[in-house]
Specification:
Elements (H helix, E strand, L loop, with lengths): L2 H8 L7 H7 L11 E4 L9 H16 L3 E4 L13 H11 L6 E5 L2 E3 L11 H13 L3 E4 L3 H13 L18 H9 L5 E4 L8 E6 L3 E6 L6 E3 L7 H11 L4 E5 L6 H10 L6 E5 L2 E4 L5 E3 L10 H7 L3 H12 L3 H7 L20 E2 L2 H14 L2 H15 L1 H9 L1 H8 L18 H5 L20 H15 L6 H14 L2 E2 L2 H6 L6 E2 H13 L7 H18 L3
Helix pairs in contact: 1-5, 1-7, 8-9, 11-13, 14-15, 14-16, 18-19, 19-21, 21-22
The structure holds one RNA strand of 76 nucleotides.
RNA sequence: GGUCUGUUGGUGAAGCGGUUAACACGGUACCCUCUCAAGGUAUUAUACACGGGUUCAAAUCCCGUACAGACUACCA
């Protein structure tokens, strides 16, 4: 019995060889500096912030060099698969205009010459390499049961030894070929393990694009390569896929750093060229008890992309935020080039923070606020309407009914060098403009300011509307009249003067303006009162005043 | 237990052997002002985890400690 016999028994149907695969998936015909990256998620539900960040960067560096960004689906774990997993991923990506050049582009559509791009469809390919490794004594079948492995583990824990299947603990590595052959013939369950030649006392130096040189002990653990169901584990699939798909740069989270020695070892054993690696810091959050921890898909709603959709944060703002945490000099770049797009910014690995970034919702919302402030009123209208259609139908109907009027509302103090920044997200807009719509102007709760005497309020309002109000007035005329109104009631029309001699007056012009403001909006806080009067027009102003007279 | 990574003001974060240790968000005050927002000005924050070394010089290099995180699965 030879290794070849054993390999044939284990893989009777393999037709390709490692050489024919090299021909099928040849080196990409790209210039030297062009980068091939990928995003390789598992279809386990929505995309997590941290993953989105790495997808975002992967696409960015591919685009920066006119290279290729592709999408591969890593679905080797059946237990964690969810329904429509691929569609969900595609949707989230599309929302952020992260469109793959190659790979999986629809639930059941793949493009490109390096496929299939779904791991569950690549079994024949993995088998070729597994067979090769068996033949060449680089891997072996292991028949250990769960209990046996458990025993090894507890044994090691007791002796305070390193945990894992290695050297003297790796009993199956010494099984004879005949024995293994016989047991497989007998239909015994087995996995295929790496036959590691690594020495834990020796060091290897690996290079990471964001962390620089890292020194590791060599890997001496006989990791599982192929599970008992015949499906490879991540490590094996990663090495084969990224080689065959000719990925040049691997971007992934820091959680993979520890397995890098294994991956490098695998690349070398298979004579693959080693790609460049960049391990990104994890996206963290502060826990209730004040400690930092990885942003969790399960526990933290803000880790879901949909959270921002629901909140009405513009996607562009999320992208700007991601870029600022991806490259620390992006903010400075934006400062210097306020109108530049993200595409014009060059990503630089040297500017990636190695420590985990704390996810900062305030910062994101601030970016959102700034972004919205730079939009045109029509754009604000469109975005808000889209948001409302999904989350506030009633408001959506009102927006549609009063389209032009709404745009004028959104336009208040917008067309100026420094526009107002009071809309944080699209979901907060309604609470800031509701009073401009008569439909919402019911069940009112007036919050008066300094002047709260009903009689005085009535007198001020009726005097204003009868004696001073004129729809045609320009802003200066309007304000002059407000001043006159103030004087008439014994309030100072000049605030500076009032501040000098407060005792000579009942109050100042702002108190009078506030009465009008509250009568129209119920609140002392609003945008430019002149614009509000302009938009409401005479009849509606009178109606609102009459409610109080 | 083992391996690796990280630690700069309230937060994010520059800095890579010589700096008054940037900048942004936030906080505070004042100015502007019909309110608010914005804007302007100023201000704030005891900021380089700790202890050793190397050096004329260390936030920056080395070692140790502490803390945090990741990995240590037939999950990715």
């Amino acid at each position: 019995m030879t290794r070849k016999d054993l390999a044939n028994l284990m893989f009777p149907n393999v037709v390709d060889t490692i050489y024919t695969l090299e021909e099928k998936y040849p080196k990409r015909n790209l210039e030297e500096n062009k980068v091939v990256t990928r995003y390789a998620p598992s279809p386990t539900g929505f995309i997590h912030m941290g993953n989105l960040l790495s997808a975002f960067i992967a696409r960015k560096i591919a685009k920066d060099t006119n290279g290729i960004f592709y999408l591969r689906i890593e679905d080797t774990d059946n237990k964690r698969k969810v329904d429509n997993g691929i569609t969900k991923i595609l949707q989230d990506l599309a929302n952020f205009s992260i469109i793959p050049d190659e790979g999986v582009v629809e639930e059941d559509k793949q493009i490109g010459n390096y496929g299939p791009y779904i791991q569950s469809q690549r079994k024949q390919i993995y088998d070729v390499y597994a067979k090769y490794m068996i033949e060449n004594d680089l891997a072996y079948p292991c028949f250990c049961t769960e209990e046996q492995l458990e025993n090894i583990r507890t044994n090691q824990e007791q002796k305070k030894e390193r945990i894992g299947y290695y050297s003297k603990y790796a009993t199956c590595r010494n099984l004879s070929i005949d024995e293994a052959y016989k047991r497989i013939k007998n239909n015994e369950k087995y996995v295929i393990r790496l036959k590691s030649k690594g020495d834990f006392d020796k060091r290897i130096i690996v290079n990471d694009l964001v962390r620089g040189k890292i020194i590791f002990p060599e890997n001496d653990i006989d990791h599982v390569l192929i599970k008992s169901d015949g499906i490879p584990v991540y490590h094996f699939a990663h090495v084969i896929d990224d080689h065959l798909m000719r990925t040049t740069h691997i971007l992934r989270g820091e959680e993979w750093l520890s397995s890098l020695p294994l991956h490098i070892q695998l690349f070398s054993m298979l004579n693959f060229e080693i790609p460049k690696y960049a391990h990104l810091g994890l996206v963290m959050k502060i826990d209730e008890n004040g400690t930092r921890r990885k942003l969790s898909k399960r526990k933290d709603p803000e880790s879901a992309i949909s959270f921002y959709h629901e909140k009405g944060v513009p996607i562009e703002a999320v992208k700007l935020y991601l870029m600022t945490i991806a490259n620390s000099n992006f903010e400075a770049f934006l400062d210097a080039n306020p109108n530049a797009s993200i595409d014009e910014f060059k990503f630089d690995f040297k500017k990636v923070s190695a420590s985990g970034t704390l996810f900062d919702l305030d910062k994101l919302l601030n970016i959102s606020r700034n972004y919205i402030s730079r939009l045109k009123a029509e754009e604000v209208y469109d975005y808000t309407l889209n948001w409302a259609k999904e989350y506030d139908i009633e408001f959506a109907k009102i927006l549609e009914k009063y389209k032009n009027y709404s745009i004028e509302i959104f336009n208040i103090e917008r067309n100026q060098k420094k526009p107002r920044k009071d809309y944080e997200t699209f979901s907060t807009i309604k609470s800031q403009v509701w009073y401009m719509y008569d439909e919402y102007f019911t069940n009112l709760d007036y919050k008066w300011g300094k002047i709260n005497d009903k009689k005085e309020i009535s007198e001020i309002l009726s005097t204003y509307i009868n004696k001073y109000y004129n729809e045609e007035d320009d802003k200066d005329t309007w304000f002059d009249k407000i001043k006159q109104l103030a004087e008439e009631f014994g309030y100072c029309s000049n605030i500076k003067e009032y501040k000098l001699n407060p005792d000579n007056y009942k109050g100042n012009v702002s108190d009078i303006a506030t009465v009008i403001r509250v009568a129209l909006t119920t609140t002392t806080i609003s945008p430019d009162l002149y614009m509000i009067l302009k938009l409401l027009k005479e009849n509606r102003i009178k109606n609102r005043f009459n409610k109080l007279l």
